């Protein structure tokens, strides 16, 4: 049994993903990269003389990728809100009185359509 196999053998269940202030975290990281980029610009000559211009461009890339990340997390949160609203609306309209479906009608997804008794 290898060192890594104890984590990848499928016996452990993956933890739930953490949810938190994702947009704020990405905005903060993007601002840090942008401020580092702007703060190093006055020293471009020194960085160029010493072969360290990649430091400046690394900060610029971090700020640019942060903007892409910000777009991604905003679109993700909007999609999660839409999904939650759709599930909430579907929960309100579902039930025996919705259409001609009865509790004993077969489930279109292949289930029996019956709920397990509450314990």
From TrEMBL:
Segments of this protein annotated with the region Disordered: 86-119
Biased composition (Low complexity): 92-109
Keywords for this protein: Membrane, Transmembrane, Transmembrane helix
InterPro entries: DUF2530
Matching Pfam families: DUF2530
Residues that span the membrane, as ranges: 21-42, 54-73
Name this polypeptide is given: DUF2530 domain-containing protein
Lineage per the UniProt record: Bacteria, Bacillati, Actinomycetota, Actinomycetes, Kitasatosporales
